[in-house]
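Notes, p. 3: input format for complexes.
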Amino acid sequence: MSTKELEQTAEAMVAEGKGILAIDESFPTIKNRFDDINTESTEASRRAYRDLLITNPGANEYISGIILFDETIRQFTADGTPFSETLIKQGIMPGIKVDTGAKDLAGHPGEKVTEGLDGLRDRLAEYKQLGAKFAKWRAVITIGEGTPSMGCIEANVHALARYAALCQEAGIVPMVEPEVLMDGDHTNELCYDVTEATLKALFNELYKQNVALEHTILKVNMVVSGKGCPTQASVDDVAALTVNCLLNTVPAAIPGIVFLSGGQSAEMATVHLNEMNANYAPLPWPLSFSYGRALQAPCLDAWQGKEENVIKAQAILLHREKCNSQATLGKYSAEDDAA
Ligand code: 5MM
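Output follows (339 residues plus 2-O-methyl-1,6-di-O-phosphono-D-mannitol):
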């Protein structure tokens, strides 16, 4: 892929009114999701579920790309077409999660570092052959007693920058995802400070590793209160602090920023995104979505692991995709959503 193609891919990922669906759950995570609907996680059940997500008619109006897991990019639709080919035919770009998960960071109790750099050059070359246009790597930053440490932030952003450079070398657009977790009872002011420190460190490291910002998408958390915080920030505060934090840390050269939902309800993730786009445009970058749970949860609940529920589950997913598309334009209506 040429530089021009990297640029086009990055821009297409955040095209007007479009966002990204994250379905790259690892084996333990998809098992947890399936446990909630009393469905066994097997190769066949995962394929069936990803099939309904990938073949949803009409999704290409709202979705620019779908992030796949290693197993998924090698699977096929019921009629035998590779999932990646099915997506490309719909005008949806296949993406791939390339990290191998967050592991305990030695010397830093309670903190994680994301692994996956070993052999990544070869894996990226294979994913490119399999149709991947972009890749994702998620680092997790935990707010707790004395955490995060600078050691944890630096280890994670260094890995993110090394991954991003390898992606661009392979002609794949990197989506860099530092996620400050919602777990804990911290305030959203503390979330702001930690997100700001993480993003400043990240862009410093991307610079040191010669990563082209023009060909990089940022996926990040919103500035929200910890799940256990007795006072939850208002929608206005989440939008104001998130936009302020991004303006203070993210260079204008970045083609787009997409948010993760991080444990917010499906509706709140949409409301927050809409609030930012309705009240703070124009910004230096488009603000869009790359939700996993906030797009999938209502759909998964409707599916319940049963073939007879596929059509209903797809309609519910499409509705959430449409709502979030409207939120990227600042045109979402909670009343219409509920109707
Ligand atoms: C879909 O979940 C992704 C994979 O998670 P694991 O590696 O833990 O299995 C996850 O990275 C996801 O893309 C992001 O966390 C955003 O998803 P949410 O649900 O927070 O919007």
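The radius of gyration is 19 Å.
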